[in-house]
Amino acid sequence: MKTLYAMRHAKSDWSGALADFDRPLNRRGEKDTPRMARFLGAWGAPEMLLSSPAQRARQTALGLVACLGGDEETVRFEPRLYGADPDTLGDVAAAAGADSESLLLVAHNPGMEDWVRQLSGAKVRMPTAAIACIALDIPTWEALPEATGQLHWLVTPKLVKAMKR
């Protein structure tokens, strides 16, 4: 059994004239990242983290690692994840080639929503910083592109914030 955590990057800043790739997180994104890290940590930190190298995804991934007490060196930034479609997301995750049981992938919409739908059959909406947890009955990550799994949960920052009340 493998556990895939699929996360859309946190909310980015649209002010200014930066190229899409260079947009950083905005204030809400900076607050949501540790909130989602704490939630994720309650399930156990993923063994491996792959991220788009776009600034907003990079900040999200590094923020998660910092909050989970991990080492920034363990984050792999994969250029193919920027704007990736579901097939590319699956190929990148499959090529990770690690023996890890859990993998967190930080990327972008619409590819992320479509990939979760493709893997689980669930029609989902993934706002910024949402995380989907999918259980996959596969022996290795290399089998991921052909796999289907079960959506265990999908959580958003708004829901996590409401749980604290």
Number of domains: 1
Low-confidence stretches: none
Indicate the radius of gyration in whole angstroms. 15 Å
Distance between the termini: 34 Å
Write out the strand line-up for the largest beta sheet, numbering strands in chain order: 3-2-4-1-5-6
Q: Residue share in helices?
A: 25-40%
Write the layout of secondary structure elements.
Blueprint: E1 2-8, H1 27-43, E2 48-51, H2 55-68, E3 75-77, H3 86-95, E4 102-107, H4 111-120, E5 131-136, E6 149-155, H5 157-163
Parallel strand pairs: 1-4, 2-3, 2-4
Antiparallel strand pairs: 1-5, 5-6
Helix pairs in contact: 1-2, 3-4
Structure description:
This protein is an alpha/beta fold and 165 residues long. It has one domain: Phosphoglycerate mutase-like (Rossmann fold, 3-Layer(aba) Sandwich). It is 35% helix and 20% strand. The chain contains five helices and six strands, in the order E-H-E-H-E-H-E-H-E-E-H. A six-stranded mixed β-sheet has the order 3-2-4-1-5-6, with helices on both faces. Helix 1 crosses helix 2. The longest helix is centred in the N-terminal third of the chain and has 17 residues. The protein is globular and about 45 Å long. The mean pLDDT is 94.
